[in-house]
Write a structure and sequence with these properties.
The protein is of the alpha/beta class and 450 residues long. The protein has one domain: TIM Barrel. 40% of the residues lie in helices and 14% in strands. It has 15 helices and 13 strands. The strands form three sheets. The chain has an eight-stranded parallel β-barrel with strand order 1-2-3-4-5-7-10-11, surrounded by five helices. The protein has a three-stranded mixed β-sheet with strand order 6-8-9, with helices on one face. Strands 12-13 form a two-stranded antiparallel ribbon. Strand 12 and strand 13 form a beta hairpin. The radius of gyration is 21 Å and the shape is globular. It comes from Winogradskya consettensis. This is Beta-glucosidase. Keywords: Carbohydrate metabolism, Cellulose degradation, Glycosidase, Hydrolase, Polysaccharide degradation. GO terms for molecular function: beta-glucosidase activity.
Length: 450
């Protein structure tokens, strides 16, 4: 089968996040994050010491861009106040290593690892946390802005809000239900303030990474349609509408934000400042129905939706699933990209900032290789879905695989392997998987065409 092809100038990347790979949880002055508090699995894969080796794996594939994240408590241990010079020095070295190997750094300011000291003061329920992120942004851009020109403000605010504040499945495990909506608004304000700071320092390209997926009702029953619509508003549009439309999607969500109308209008003006690109993280579609009494909805999604809410997930029909149990439906990526284009006439160019799959890969065999044909098929299908969206008129400029390396999959631990590079438990030895070579060949083809 031939490799998919893309327009000239299309950029291929790999992605990671700080908490999932860095390790060195208590080294060189780093403060604790909410994830250090939530889980004792925080040794990572020692990227902090092995970054040069890891950058070689990224660069040797011909990758244009590397999306990583800064650890806020490594840079500013208490979230506000004294800066940890040794933490900044690490990112200085990482950026220089990437540039020396011809890879463009595309860092994310915030990928869920809030300093615990700020969580102790209310976390994202506290409006002041957004201002703290703006101060932290200034620290980073003033140090690295001479070499880093492309920035992502926030990652998947919907997951942080819904899993960490609405439920208790992720840090900080607040379990507030719809009382988590102020956390959504304050993260959006943080995005707006960070964008403002980055612009003031002359950043060339600014975006945000939002998780998006189609949400379908399980039937034509009006109750199911209404349940799916509410779920879509909460998980998709609560986070993109303020940025791209300067409004929230419905009255229920607006009423839960905890701000008056005048303050909301000012906040939305800040949140909706123009962006240079819009990041889309995609993994699987979702199907929703109105709850049926006595029906067991356990295990349908990565986390369970508690009883008492007006929507329940049902399994998405799919011939294949990842080993994480996620439905493999590449056409759903084409669909959501088309939906975003239709919903937002002013949609900036899109970058797929995360897409990938967990398979429980076996260690290197006698031939020294890690064979992962299912991941290759997954990536091939989803890249073809991106190509279909581009053919349909969606302006997609790049695609980043999640992830460069096997890593700590948040609450799911180390069993779930998303990486193009296999990381051996214990020794932490790195081995390029067959999917790494497949991705390298695709990038080589596209570089030759450009």
């Amino acid at each position: 089968m031939s490799l998919p092809s893309f327009p000239p100038g299309f950029r291929f990347g790999m992605a990671t996040s700080a908490f999932q790979i860095e390790g060195a949880a208590e080294l060189d002055g780093k403060g604790p994050s909410i994830w250090d508090t939530f889980t004792d699995q925080r040794d990572g894969i020692d990227h902090y010491h092995r970054y040069a080796e890891d950058v070689t794996h990224i660069a040797d594939a011909g990758t244009h861009d590397y999306r990583f994240s800064f650890s806020w408590p490594r840079v500013v241990p208490s979230g506000r106040g004294p800066v940890n010079k040794r933490g900044l020095d690490f990112y200085d070295r990482l950026v220089d290593e990437l540039l020396a190997k011809g890879v463009r750094p595309v860092p994310t300011l915030y990928h869920w690892d809030l300093p615990q000291a700020l969580e102790d003061k209310g976390g994202w329920l506290n409006r002041d946390t957004a201002a703290a992120l703006a101060d932290y942004t200034a620290v980073l851009v003033s140090r690295l802005g001479d070499r880093v020109h492309d920035w992502i403000t926030m990652n998947e605010m919907n997951v942080q809000t819904l899993y960490g504040y609405g439920l208790s499945s992720h840090a900080p495990a607040r379990n507030l239900g719809l009382g988590a909506l102020p956390a959504a608004h304050n993260q959006l304000r943080a995005h707006g303030l960070a964008t403002q700071v980055l612009r003031a320092f002359g950043a060339r390209s600014i975006g945000v990474a939002g998780q998006h997926f189609p949400v379908h009702p399980a039937s034509d029953d009006p109750a199911d349609v209404a349940a799916a619509g509410l779920f879509a508003n909460l998980t998709n549009w609560t986070f993109s509408d303020p940025i791209l439309r300067s409004e929230y999607p419905d009255d229920l969500i607006r009423a839960g934000l905890g701000v008056d109308d005048d303050t909301l209008a000012t906040d939305l003006e800040l949140i909706s400042a123009p962006l240079d690109f819009y990041g889309v993280n995609f993994y699987e579609p979702t199907m929703i129905e109105a709850p049926r009494a006595g029906k067991d909805y356990h295990g349908v999604l990565e986390v369970d939706v508690p009883e008492g809410l007006p929507f329940s997930p049902v399994p998405v029909p799919s011939d294949e699933r990842t080993d994480f149990g996620w439905a493999i439906v590449p056409a759903a990526l084409t669909e959501i990209l088309g939906t975003l284009r239709s919903r937002y006439p002013n949609l900036p160019p899109i970058i797929i900032t995360e897409n990938g799959a967990s398979f429980h890969d076996a260690p290197p065999g006698p031939d020294g290789r890690v064979h992962d044909p299912r991941r290759i098929a997954y990536l091939d299908g989803h890249l073809r879905a991106v190509a279909d969206a581009i053919a349909n008129g969606v302006d997609v400029r790049g695609y980043y695989v999640w992830s460069a390396l096997d890593n700590l999959e948040w609450a799911a631990g180390y069993q779930e392997r998303f990486g193009l590079v296999y990381v051996e438990p214990g020794t932490l030895a790195r081995t390029r998987k067959d999917s790494w070579y497949w991705y390298r060949d695709l990038i080589t083809q596209e570089r030759a065409r450009s």
